[in-house]
Structure formats: structure tokens, C-alpha cells
Amino acid sequence: MGVTRPDVPGFNLATMTDAMLVRRVLDGDTAAFTTLVDRHAAACTRFATRMLGNREDAEDATQETFLRAYRSLARYEERQAFRTWLFQVLINRCRTAAVRRQRRHRMFLVDDDAIAVASVRPAAEGSDLRAELQRVIDALDPDQREAFLLKHVEQLSYDEMAAATGVGVSALKMRVKRACDRMQWMLRDAEASDVGT
Amino acid sequence: MSEPDDPRWLDDVAGELRREVPVRPAWRARLLEEVARTPTPSVRDDVDDTFDDRDERPLDAGRRRWSITVGPLGSLAAATMLVALGAGAMYVAMSRLGANAREGASRTAATAASPGLVSGAPASAEREVVRFELSAPRASHVALVGSFNEWNPAATPLSRDPASGIWVVSLRLLPGRHVYAFVVDGDVTADPSAPRAADEDFGSPNSVVFVSSPRT
């Protein structure tokens, strides 16, 4: 079914909902996709960076995500929030990037050595604190890290998370809880190390 | 940051991790160049299979491949089942043919009653007339967009009542929940007199209208 280009004076892309922007792109207005990129690129880059632990892999995964989403835009259904649909693609890209990295023997470490490394807390604030938190995040099981970031950093609802990950709500709640318990334990351990030194 | 035993530790950790990772302008420019080189997507295009990249999903890494070997007796049983299935399918097809003929009559009646404002809905469902109003005396163009017209700003323009300055349009909508917004001189705006949609999309807020079934 064809949709004619809206003949509306001074149409403002910035005020359009994501669903309307998608409709514009499918109608041939590719500039509308730039607005979608500008709305969602920062969150996607943040999630991928926290998930993969480095900026280069994160930018690759995010770029691939937007290109795949663009090519498959006709598949998007308005019943689902565009952000959830986009994160569905992004999560897959991050999982694939993690597998590729494992193949390159730069695997995520989840053993005691990794926890020990994560627990070494530099006595500094700001970006050092963020680096420390990233080490704690990296030490989580990838499934737990993914669930924690979606819930507490990207602030998706559990229903949105289930739609984006293909994992049931109960399992996701359990993963988030385990991630929180583990992180709290690691941070507490780091505090104890600081007191001891 | 608060201590790990402090109940606020999670808020502090999440707040720190929520700090923006700035999008590099060079990365954005490269992405948009790639997009420009990609064929424009269209509702008529074939779906890009690369979106469904389950083959690359780690969770599916252990997926099994099944094979079934059928012997002579199995072949006979399968042939019998196919004949039975064929007869069943023919019966269903003939039943649908009768149903479609009945629906065709009601579709004609529905189209005559609602001259093209809404299309593509099941013909058997009964619609209710819903009147949308917006007071915007200074606006020069107002349109209605929503889940019922694929958010197409050209599909449903409103007419201005010269006496009151109120913009109005009436639609025949199917029973259920409909999310919508107005487009006032190009800007999307929620209906100030209607409840906001809880599942808001990125961008301007939407409104929601519930249409009850005519039978209830």
C-alpha cells in the first residue's frame, strides 16, 4: 500500500514521533532517518560501550545496528516502541561482537582473578570511578551484564526487555538481581581492600 | 558515591553508568554516508533477511538439526495422512469461500457509510463515529495522525469552523484503543483534552482514545 508524501506546511521533524519518522523514511524522505539516528545514537553507543567494554567495538556494533535497521525498516511495527525494536538489533550485534572477540581470545573473564582485578579500586573520582565501574560490569556474566544495563542504565521496562532480548520476564528479573548482588559484593570487597591499605 | 551497603548504592552506580557516551561527529558522518549509499527502504521492498540474524545469536549456538528417515510402512502412512489433510483443506477452503461472499456484502455497506476516511479494517467489525476537536484559532493547517491512519499527516486533515475557530474531523473507528496526535502547522502536539498515552514514543507525547463497541 502506497503512502503519499504529506503536504503539510513547515513540517517539523524534531516534533514527530518515531513512528511518524519511520513512515516518512518509507515514503522516501531519508532525512527523517537522520533524526532517528540523532535521537537514539547516544543511548545505543552507551549501551554498546558498557556492554563491550571498549569504544571501537561499540561504534562498530552501533553503526551496523543502524544500517540493519534502515534496511529492514519496513519490518518495524508501530505497536512496538522504535527504541525497543532498535535495541533488539543492537543486542544481537553486541552478542555477535562478543562472540567474535572470544574467538580472538580476548574473552570476558568471570573467574576469581577477574573479580580480584575488578576489586582493585583506584583512589580517584570522575572518570576513574567510571573505569572502575566498567571493570565491575565487565566481570559480570554477559547475560547478567546485558540485563542490568537494559534495566538500570537504559531504563527499559521488563516487558520491553523481554521483547528486545527474547528472554522471559522472570529470567530477566533473576539476572538483574544476580547482577546487583554480585556488583554489590565486588564493590564491598573493594571498600574493604581500601580500608585495609 | 555512597557505600555498597548504603541502600542508595544502586542509584549512584546506575547514575554514573548513565553518563552520556558522546557520539563522535566523524562516526555520525560516516554512518550517514553509509545510509545514503544504501537503497532507500520501502514498504514494497522485500524484507531484508539480514535483520533476522538468529544464526549469529550465541543463545542459538547449540541449535540442533533434525532428520527423519521414513521406511516403506512409514511412506504408506504418510500418503494416507496427506490424502486426509488434502480433503480437510478443501473443506476449509470451500467454507471460507462462503464466508467471504457474506463479508463482501457487509464490506460494501460499510464503505458506503464511511466515505474513505478509514480503510483496511476488517469489514465485519462495526465502527463508531468519533469526533476530534482542537481549538487552534491561529493555526493555518491541522491534521490528525494516529495508529488508525499509519501516522500519515496527509491522510486526515481537519476543517476549521470559521465561527468558533475550532478544527474538527469525524472518523469511524473500530472499537478499541487508538493512539493519536494533532499536527498543527507542522508541529506534532498531543490533544490537550484527552489522556496521554502511557507507552509514549520518542518525540512529542501522544493522546489516547478508547472506542467502545456499539453492542456494549
Q: Categorize the overall geometry of chain B.
A: extended
Q: What best-fitting shape of chain A do the alpha-carbon axes yield?
A: elongated
Gross CATH architecture of the largest domain in chain A = Orthogonal Bundle
**Mean pLDDT over all positions of chain A:** 83
Structure overview:
The complex is a heterodimer of chains A (197) and B (216). By secondary structure, chain A is an all-alpha fold. Chain A has 2 domains: 12-107, RNA polymerase sigma factor, region 2, helix turn helix motif (Rna Polymerase Sigma Factor, Chain: A, Orthogonal Bundle), CATH 1.10.1740.10; 108-197, Winged helix-like DNA-binding domain superfamily/Winged helix DNA-binding domain (Arc Repressor Mutant, subunit A, Orthogonal Bundle). Chain A is 70% helix and 0% strand. Chain B is of the alpha+beta class. Chain B has a domain at 128-211: Immunoglobulins (Immunoglobulin-like), CATH 2.60.40. In chain B, strand 5 (176-184) and strand 6 form a beta hairpin. Chain B is extended and about 60 Å long. Residues 44-71 and 88-121 of chain B have low confidence and may be disordered. The interface between A and B is large, with 76 and 66 residues.
Care to give the gist of this entry?
With 197 residues, chain A is mostly helical.
Secondary structure: elements and pairs:
The complex is a heterodimer of chains A (197) and B (216).
Chain A: H1 18-26, H2 31-52, H3 55-71, H4 82-103, H5 112-119, H6 127-138, H7 142-153, H8 158-165, H9 169-196
Helix pairs in contact in A: 1-2, 2-3, 2-4, 3-4, 4-8, 5-6, 7-9
Chain B: H1 9-17, H2 25-37, H3 72-113, E1 128-135, E2 142-146, E3 159-160, E4 166-173, E5 176-184, E6 187-189, E7 207-211
Antiparallel strand pairs in B: 1-4, 2-5, 3-4, 5-6, 5-7
